[in-house]
Structure formats: structure tokens, C-alpha cells
Amino acid sequence: QVHLVESGGGLVQGGGSLRLSCAASGSIFRIVSMAWYRQAPGKQRELVALITAGHSTNYADSVKGRFSISRENAGNTVSLQMNSLKPEDTAAYFCNARIYHTVNAWDEYWGQGTQVTVSS
After folding, report:
1. Measured in whole angstroms, how far is the alpha carbon of residue 100 from the centre of its chain?
2. pLDDT, tens digit, for every residue of 19-67?
3. CB 3.0–4.6 Å: which of 38, 65, 80, 98 could bond 20 by disulfide?
């Protein structure tokens, strides 16, 4: 079993910054990728940013140039630095990880979500 524990959400004024972190623990053989998704009320969950084991990154067009994803702690922690925040960034943010437990078996995991609210 794997647990993803998120931290760092909160309320910020437009133009401000927040940093989200997510730590993975448990039965981990290898982490394939870690990512942040978000879901605003009445909308579908969408990918915000993803980072692979090789540190390749992918960002939603709406956050390019403002958000930065990184991995620390031997790769078991993923952070999302969010700058120049806009009210439309308001959403619940979810950590996601694809993890191999053995050389052949992998699963996808989600964190519990952390709320980010940006005031205008």
C-alpha cells in the first residue's frame, strides 16, 4: 500500500504564490511519474503538471510560465510552485503517482486533495 500526503494549500490574493508538496510512502519499488491535477466546482479534473522519473515535465497550457513542478527527497516528494496565481486557479489540487511495487506490478494513487483559493 502507498500513501500520498499533501500539504501547502490555502487562500492567497491574486498575483501571489503558493507551494504544494506531496510525499509518497509505503511499498515503493520505483516511481514512474508524479503529477498534480485540479478540479474546480462543476468542472472535470484536469492535469496541471507532471514529472517523470527522468525529470521530464509537462504542463497545462493555462499554467505554463507560472507553475513549476519538481521532485525531491530521492524522488518520493513532488512539489508544485505556483506563482502569479489567478482566481481561475481556484480548485482542489490532487497529487497523483504511478508506482511500481515490484518489477512487474504498478498502481496509480491519489492524494486526498488540498484546496487552493485565489481571491481577486
Report:
1. 19
2. 999 999 999 999 999 999 999 999 999 999 999 999 999 999 999 999 9
3. 80
